[in-house]
Amino acid sequence: MFIIFGTRGLKHTVSDSPVLSNSCPNCNNGSLVNKLYRRWFTLFFIPVIPLDTVDRFYECDSCKSAYNESIKTILQRSKEEINENQKRATSIYAKALIAAMTHMAIIDEDFAPEEEREIKDAIEGFQEMKEELLAIHENVKVNANMNNQVFDFLNSARNELSSEALINILAQAAVVLLADGTIEKEEENLMKEYLIACGLPKEMYQTLIDKLKQKDMTTLKKEQMN
C-alpha cells in the first residue's frame, strides 16, 4: 500500500479579527476581511495537521482585491495618501505580472500567438501604464531574465503586496503556459522559482494550480453565458 503525503497552503479567515467595513481602496464599498495562508501536512491529499502560517493579509469581500496587513494603518491616512498607495501597488502588480507572463511564454522557446494575445489583453487592463508595460513586455521577450530583471519585479511585489496578490500574479501569469494544454516540467520548476522569489514556499505550487483552475472555470462559465 502506498502512503501519499505532502504539504500545501490553504486560505483561512481569521475569525477573531475585526472586519474593516466598506473600506476597500479598489472598489470603495467592499469590506476587508483578515485572512491567512497556513501550510498543512496532507495525507492522501487531505489536510490533516496545521503547520506554520505563511502570511496574513486582508481581502475584499466584494472585488477580491488583496492587501498586506499594513492597509489597516494606511486607511487612517488622508484620501490622497490612500489613492497614492493604491496607485503604487497597482503599478508594482502590473509590472510583475507582465514580466512574469512574458518570461513564462518564452521559457519553452516557442512564443505562440495565443500567448502574445493573453499578454496584450492583460496590458489592456492597465491603460494608464500601457506604454510602460509594452516596453517591459518587449524587453523581456528579447532579453528574457537578463540581469535578473524578472525576479527584480517579483521581489518588488514581494515587498509591497500580500501573499494572495502574489499568488494571483503567478496564477494569471501561468495562463500563458496552458496555451498548448499542458504544463511542462521546466515550466513547473519556473513557477516554483517564482514562488521562492516572492517569498512563498514552493509547496504553495498546488495553491497556485488551484487558483489557475478557478480562473479557467470562471472563463468557461462566461463563455457559456455568452
From TrEMBL:
Which organism was this protein described from?
Aquimarina aggregata
Say which domain of life the source belongs to. Answer: Bacteria
Record's signal peptide: none
PANTHER family according to UniProt: UPF0768 PROTEIN YBL029C-A
The name this protein carries in UniProt is Zinc-ribbon 15 domain-containing protein
Q: What residue stretches are annotated with the Zinc-ribbon domain? A: 24-84
- Domain Co-chaperone DjlA N-terminal, first and last residues per copy: 95-203
Looking up InterPro entries in the UniProt record yields: DjlA_N (IPR007791), TerB-like (IPR029024), Zinc_ribbon_15 (IPR031493)
